[in-house]
Amino acid sequence: MIVNQTRDTVVCERVELADNPLRRLVGLLGRRGLDPGGGMLIVPAPSIHSLFMRFEFDAVFLDREMRVVKLAERIPKWRVRSAKHARSVLELPAGEIASRGLQLGDQLAIRAD
Q1: Is a pLDDT exceeding 80 seen at residue 73?
Q2: Which positions ≥6 away from 39 have C-beta within 8 Å?
Q3: 89 burial via Cβ count (<10 Å: 0-12, 13-18, 19+)
Q4: How far is 27 from 41, CA to CA, in rounded Å?
Q5: Residue 60 — pLDDT band, cuts 50, 70, 90?
Q6: Residue 70, exposed/middle/buried by CB under 10 A (0-12, 13-18, 19+)?
Q7: Are 2 and 12 within 8 A, CB to CB?
Q8: Hey, what's the torsion of the CAs at 12, 31, 71, 86, to 10 degrees?
Q9: How confident is the model over 64-85, as a mean pLDDT?
Q10: Calpha distance 24→87 (Å, rounded)
Q11: Looking at residue 70, what is its pLDDT?
Q12: Which terminus of the chain is more exposed, N or C, with fewer CB under 10 A?
């Protein structure tokens, strides 16, 4: 799971790790959406795209220490997003940034259940 240490909250209950070239290439392509409470952490990834995607999603750009450096909400199809100093991106269901109260500068962490 991914937690927000700054706010002592859970960001996503289940996270998939895309940390090799094939997993990063495929990402969320071919899916109809992300399940509630789910997410995908893409490492390394200073940028992402929504080419060929079937759904909107939120993206949380993180630096090497997993501090939030940029938030992109409800990214539509056929868009590209990037962030200076980003090392990874956490993709979440559309609307999760707002509903989980994420803000720039928040410190996130991976925690095992």
Answers
A1: yes
A2: 2, 11, 12, 14, 15, 16, 90, 91, 92, 93, 96
A3: buried
A4: 9
A5: very high
A6: middle
A7: yes
A8: 90
A9: 96
A10: 13
A11: 98
A12: C
Q: Which amino acid is located at 48 in the chain?
A: I
Enumerate domains of the chain plus CATH numbers: 2-110 (2.60.120.1140)
Rounded to an integer, the average pLDDT of 76-97 is 95
What size, in residues, is the chain?
113
Residue type, 74: R
Cα–Cα nearest to 89, from 102, 105, 71? 71
- Beta pairing class for 80-82 and 47-49: antiparallel
Report the 10 Å Cβ neighbour count for 8: 7
